[in-house]
Amino acid sequence: MASHHHEVVLLDATLSAFSMRARIALAEKGIEYEKKEQDLVNKSPELLQMNPIHKKVPVLVHNGKPVCESLIIVQYIDEVWKDKGNPLLPSDPYTRSQARFWADFADKKVVDVVTKVWTKKGEEFEIAKKDFISTFKQLEEELGDKPYFGGENFGYVDLSLIPFYCWFYAYETVGSFKTEDHCPKFIEWATRCMQRETVAKSLPDPKQVYEFVLIVRKKLGVD
Question: Which residues, in sequence order, are bridge partners of residue 12?
Answer without folding.
Answer: 37
